[in-house]
Amino acid sequence: MFKRSIVVLLVVVAAGLIIAVTAPPHLGSPARIASKAAGAWQEVGQTPAYDMQVRHTSGREYSVTYPRWQYVDEPFQLQGEQLVHDGGENTMNDAVTKISYTNGSDELTIGDKGGEHVHTLARISQ
C-alpha cells in the first residue's frame, strides 16, 4: 500500500512538472505577424489618426506605407515575430523601426528604436 502511494505521487508530480514546463510557452506564444500584418490599419487615440498600409511582397519582405513617418512605401523584413526596417542610410542617426502584432486584440504597434515614438494601430481591413 505504501509503495503504491509513492508511485501514484511520483506520477502526479511528474505530470504536474510536464504541464508546468510545456503549458506556459504555448499560452504566451508570440503572435504570428507573418500571417496577420498585411492589410490596412489606423492609429488608435491619435488626432489626426494616420492610416498604415502593410503589404506582403515576397518571402520575408513587406512594404509599409505610413504617412506619419514616410509618405512612400518603405521596405520591411520579417525578423522573428516583428517586421523591421533598418532606418535608412545613416543608421547612427536614424531610428530602427519595428512593427509588432498584439495577439488577441488584432492591433499593431509601431515604434522606433528608442521607444520615443510608439503608436498603436487597429485593423481597418485585410
Characterization of the model:
- By secondary structure, the chain is an alpha+beta fold.
- Helix content is 24%, strand content 41%.
- The chain has two domains: 1-29; 33-125, Lipocalin.
- The protein is built from two helices and eight strands.
- β2 (51-58) and β3 (61-66) form a beta hairpin.
- The chain is elongated and about 75 Å long.
Task: Give me the strand/helix succession.
Answer: HHEEEEEEEE
Estimate the strand proportion. 35-45%
Give the N-terminus to C-terminus distance in angstroms: 62 Å
Fill in the CATH topology of the largest domain: Lipocalin
Helix content: 10-25%
Name given to the CATH architecture of the largest domain: Beta Barrel
Specify the overall morphology: elongated
Instruction: Tell me the number of structural domains.
Output: 2
Seen as an oligomer or otherwise, the chain set is single chain
Determine the number of helices (DSSP H or I, runs of at least 4 residues): 2
Number of strands: 8
Q: What's the pLDDT, averaged over the residues?
A: 78
Please list the strands of the largest sheet in the order they lie side by side: 1-2-3-4-5-6-7-8
Return residue spans where pLDDT drops below 50 for at least 5 consecutive residues: 23-31, 89-93
Q: What is the CATH first-level class name of the largest domain?
A: Mainly Beta
Q: Structural class of the secondary structure composition?
A: alpha+beta
* Rg (C-alpha, Å): 21 Å
Biggest sheet overview: 8 strands, antiparallel, barrel
